[in-house]
Amino acid sequence: MTTRVQSLAQSGLSRVPPQYIQPPQTRPVRHTAPEPDSIPVIDLSSFDPTQRASTRDSIARACREWGAFHVTNHGVPPSLLASLRRAGLSFFSDTPIPDKLRYSCSAAASEGYGSKMLATTTSDQNDAVQVLDWRDYFDHHTLPLSRRNPNRWPEFPADYRELVATYSDEMKILAQKLLALISESLGLRASCIEDAVGEFYQNITISYYPPCPEPDLTLGLQSHSDMGAITLLIQDDVGGLQVLKGGNKWVTVQPLSDAILVLLADQTEIITNGKYRSCEHRAITNPDRARLSVATFHDPAKTVKISPASELINDSSLAKYRDVVYGDYVSSWYTKGPGGKRNIDALLLDP
Ligand SMILES: O=C(O)CCC(=O)C(=O)O
Ligand SMILES: [Fe+2]
């Protein structure tokens, strides 16, 4: 069974164990001065037709420049976001570790309480070395309803299961709204991306990053892009999520109370034929405070074949990505590990 990072952190270590030490090239660089650049914020309240055009333009710019943006006035009650963060934090910080271990998940992508999501190796003097993330998590299978079994989720606090179920339903509605706006921002039919994805397979992962004694040597979550279509993320006020801008600059996403962060994922990159790239991101740790985030992933079914939208392909704009059956993409992702964007880049026809 994998060690939980929280038990290591609570044992009062002053150094992190060697398997959590990143090689020099992937260690985080801490920003001391305020960063000049920040993730765009898009107000979704203006759903009347005249404003919709300017919302679409802002979305187009954010998707091209960042592959990520915050949304405000998104229709999800702020009290629900706060309650879910509170319930998640209570599971991680108030439940004794032996009780949490009753919910242990067995392998990558299975439901439950775990720590090592990603098998990743880095080469150290020709020996393959596995580097672990400084993170524990709880993964919930939430949609379609046939996958949702709240009995597998924590039963404390008392409203935990109901909150996760309500949150799942709200995130589905928001993901549909956003995929429609993103499609339209490319001049496509509103339903174009959602039709290509099909019924959403939705997972909700609550991540808990304990304080880390050596934050300059570790990552809470190594660099990756999410493999599905679209991810909706909320975090607490601690901060630590970073997105890669322009392929070379890590920018910290400043927590914005009540906003929801939208991250474009790999299948949207394929469907839009690379007009919008998926967002590469990672989480850093800090020495003082534990951090909590909730990521809601919206993926195709494993049997769905994903290819660039036919509306975007013509004689002067050829398909840039190979078609892929989503289940094959997922298997290969877990076999190779994330490694930034190497999985999606491997599908490029002419890299
Ligand atoms: O903790 C975060 O902010 C990032 C989580 C994430 O990227 C993921 O779960 O895929
Ligand atoms: Fe992610």
Detailed description of the structure:
The protein has a single domain, classed as Sandwich (Jelly Rolls). The chain has nine helices and 16 strands. It has helices at residues 5-10, 49-65, 78-94, 97-101, 160-185, 192-197, 266-271, 326-336, 342-345, and strands spanning 41-43, 68-72, 112-114, 121-124, 127-130, 136-143, 201-209, 221-224, 230-235, 241-245, 249-252, 260-264, 281-283, 291-299, 305-306, 324-325. The strands form four sheets. An eight-stranded mixed sheet has the order 1-2-12-9-14-7-6-3. Strands 8-13-10-11 form a four-stranded antiparallel sheet, with no helix packed on it. Strands 4-5 form a two-stranded antiparallel sheet. The protein is globular. The structure holds 2-oxoglutaric acid and fe (ii) ion. 2-oxoglutaric acid (AKG) is lined by residues 205, 207, 221, 226, 233, 235, 241, 281, 283, 293, 295. Fe (ii) ion is lined by residues 224, 226, 281, 295. Residues 1-40 are annotated as: Disordered. Belongs to the iron/ascorbate-dependent oxidoreductase family. Residues 199-300 form the Fe2OG dioxygenase domain. It comes from Glycine max (Soybean).
